[in-house]
Structures are given as C-alpha cells and as structure tokens.
Amino acid sequence: MKSVVQKWHGFWRLTGTERGILLEATVALVVTWLGLRLSGFRRWNLLLSRLAPARAEKGALPPSLLVSARLLARMESAAARNLFYPASCLERSMVLCWLLRTRGIPAELRVGAHKDADRFEAHAWVECAGIVLNEADDVHVHFVPFDEPISSPETASH
C-alpha cells in the first residue's frame, strides 16, 4: 500500500489537466455514491443524463477522442482506487460515462448479468464506439447486457 506521501508525489507529477480530471472524478464518485443511496439508480441516472445527454454517433471514434476517453478512464480509475471507500462498478461506470459525455464523447453505460450455479452477479461498464473503456475488452463474454435479448440454448435453435 502506498503511503500518503507517495500518493501526493504521484498527484503532483500529473499534468494540470490530469489533476483537474482526477479531482472532478473524485467529487463525482462521492456525489454519485450519495445520490444513488438517496434517490436510487433510475433517478440518479436520469439526472446525470440530463446534465450530460448522450450523443448519438455512429462509426469509429476519431483517434483524438479515443485518446481523451482513455485518459478520462485512467483518471477516474485512479480516483476510485484512492477513495476512502471502495467504489462499486456501477458508481465508477456512471461517473466515467458522465465525464465522457460532458466532454462531447459518446459513451454508453452498460449493465449486464451473469448466473453461475446458484450465484447471480451484475456488473456495469462503459463503452465508447463499441470499445470497453473501464474493463477488459472481453467483459461482454462474461456478462450479458440487459438491453440485449437473452436467449437460452433451447430457444436459440428455434
């Protein structure tokens, strides 16, 4: 575990832009943690969507926007790692999606599920032009997004 001094040295080694994003992400994570508990997912997601509406954009993302998107994902991840509480994947993904959209970068919040024996798991991640930003690229293999039809092997052959 890094000491507080090491963390501060790391913070000051960042560029001014990176520090700004890191601070913005930290505040947004704490506010989102609180917002989800006070108002619930639907209301909080609606508020974030109104503050930063999604852009409907088809096709590949320009390289400059992809570089910006990856920077935002790295800074949000760093903010989440250094919080005083463990941020959930939903909180992290909602914040990253909001950070991207406020900068005009098209992003989708994805929520999926996975059932293994008697255990049900849900997970959230962010996609930008089909690219997973805050998780491994194969997250879709392990979790089926809720907005896609889920077919069982029995119904898939009919």
Report what the structure shows.
The structure is a single chain. With 158 residues, the chain is an alpha+beta fold. It has one domain. The protein contains 6 helices and 4 strands; from the N terminus they run H-H-H-H-E-E-E-H-E-H. The protein has helices at residues 4-13, 16-51, 63-81, 89-102, 139-142, 153-156, and strands spanning 108-116, 119-128, 131-132, 144-145. It has a 4-stranded antiparallel β-sheet. Strand 1 and strand 2 form a beta hairpin. Helix 2 (16-51) packs across helix 3 and helix 3 (63-81) packs antiparallel against helix 4. The longest helix has 36 residues, at 16-51. The chain is globular, with a radius of gyration of 17 Å. The chain starts with a helix and ends with a helix.
Count of extended strands? 4
Strand content: 5-15%
Morphology call: globular
Instruction: Describe the largest sheet.
Output: 4 strands, antiparallel
Spatial strand arrangement across the major sheet: 3-2-1-4
Arithmetic mean pLDDT: 83
What is the chain-wise order of helices and strands?
HHHHEEEHEH
- Taking all Cα atoms into account, the compactness measure Rg is 17 Å
How many domains is the backbone divided into? 1
Helix segment count?
6
Helix content: 55-70%
User: What is the first-to-last residue Cα distance?
Assistant: 54 Å
Low-confidence stretches: 148-158
Q: What class would the helix/strand composition place it in?
A: alpha+beta
Throw out a few tags for this protein:
158 residues; 6 helices; 4 strands; disordered C terminus
